[in-house]
Amino acid sequence: MPRNQEGASLAGSSFPLQPTPIHISDEQLSDLRARLKRTRWPLGVGNDDWYYGVGRSYLEELVDYWLNVYDWRKAEAAINRYEHYQVNVDGVPVHFMRKSGVGPSPVPLILTHGWPWTFWHWSKVIDPLANPGAFGGDPAEAFDVIVPSLPGFGFSTPLRNNPDMNFWKIADLWHTLMTTILGYEKYAAGGCDIGALVTGQLGHKYANELYAIHIGSAQKLSLFNGDRAWDLSGWHPIPESVPEHIRAGIISLDRRFAAHLAVHVLDSSTLAYGLSDSPVGMLAWILERWAKWSDNDGNVEHIFSKDDILTHAMIFWVNNAIETSMRVYANANRYPWTPAHDRWPVVEAPTGITFVGYENPPGISTENRVQHFLSSDRASWYNHVNVTAHDRGGHFIPWEIPDGWIDDLRRTFRHHR
Asked: Mean per-residue pLDDT for 121-127?
């Protein structure tokens, strides 16, 4: 039974914190408009195919929409349909969104986003997870859903006193939030991208206090350890014997992530001078990831509407979060992960894993994706109890295939509640 800080049961009682709706001032919105109007554009010639990065014509279209059509107050009202809280966790400012569970015994569940995500990327799954009965599900599978902004992201800002923040330090903060501040004796966790590493670390260090975890990938927690963490290929040349279609897939994958990892691990603060000053520059940098990483058939608006794109961008911009959000990569390398114990599997908590087709490794189909993982050296790291692969879906799993993510997560926790 979850308990509050005084040891009293939370069941049937009010939440131990008072909500604070999010709000962006009119002054911030006016400053944004002025900056957008003063944008000095690069020439952008010869880049209609986005070979050199984001194309100018679409970015101009998006910025014109930002200035003349987009309505932040409408987005703000939608976000404030949920409870929002601001807390101090061991000196770190933490914002989280909450939807209380509707069912006989909702399990507390903390969901952790990635980069360039925001907490709002969970907005398509929070209602069905909290109130499954309203969506044709079983009320007995309800969760009390906690959705924080990573420290240095969104409204978990400013991160003035923790320039060393990384995924395994965030896991400690999350555990303190869930147990000491919110008073849960045991809880569940889920996450994707950086959030999968945070969640994996919870399942490694705090397994006894978790029901289970569900993640959108299954990397080793040592992923960013080593001298060349910015190089996805590990500096290994592509063997000449590799079939041409697999070679093309490897190159495509490298192009998708190489600059992102290299800059964020090596030069995030240098880039941040431009992106913190120019909303168009910031938008371009994160737009490229949303466009290149989602399973959108060549049109980002198949997944993210203009309003969606700009709402997420606003959450970064108004909080001046771009530098501290990017630095989480460099800090994963600068302050390497070290194990809390030497037992195997490394992640002892029961683990569910969702794979998506757009991120299938070169030469691996969805049909054999699960077996490919099970035969890899990553599988032994996890106490995996539920591994699923979907034909569709890209990097932003709960946004792109919310129904699939919900079904997978429920299946993981069905026998671990």
From this structure: 98
